[in-house]
Design a protein that fits this description.
Strand content: under 5%
Order of helices and strands: EEHH
Strand order of the largest sheet: 1-2
Number of strands: 2
Structural class: mainly alpha
């Protein structure tokens, strides 16, 4: 129920000041605004953390693939050294097959890298839009 002073001015039930009702109390509005800003900031931080986690995961996957690639190169080099002569038809076919597999893997990695960059840029754009 609204309170009134003896002079006929409204009195706030929220802050007990004269001149307004609780419905339009500036203290309450400021508090609600601060709460809304806090929630928005928490959501923004959460999205940013998720984007960082995805990026970190993608970078870890990329590093693992690079390590596998290096291991394959070492294995190929060891096989070549074991066979001695690299001019044999069998080793040439093997090398061609390995090169084709490497090319296919590289194209998959490039697609993955592009996806990572696109996801990161979208997440950063969203964070910038939210922060404005």
């Amino acid at each position: 129920m609204n309170k009134w002073t003896k002079s006929g001015q409204p009195k706030c039930n929220n802050c007990s000041r004269v001149g307004h009702f609780a419905k339009c109390c500036p203290d309450r509005q400021m508090l609600e605004g601060l709460l809304a800003m806090g929630k928005a900031k928490m959501e923004e931080d959460k999205k940013e953390a998720e984007a960082r986690a995805r990026l970190k995961k993608k970078l870890a996957e990329k590093q693992k693939k690079e390590e596998r690639k290096e291991r394959k190169k070492k294995e190929r080099k060891a096989r070549k050294e074991m066979k001695g002569v690299t001019g044999e038809k069998e080793s040439d076919k093997e090398n061609e097959n390995m090169e084709a597999a490497d090319i296919e893997e590289a194209s998959k990695e490039k697609t993955l890298d592009d996806d990572v960059v696109n996801e990161a840029s979208i997440a950063l754009k969203r964070a910038l839009v939210i922060s404005k």
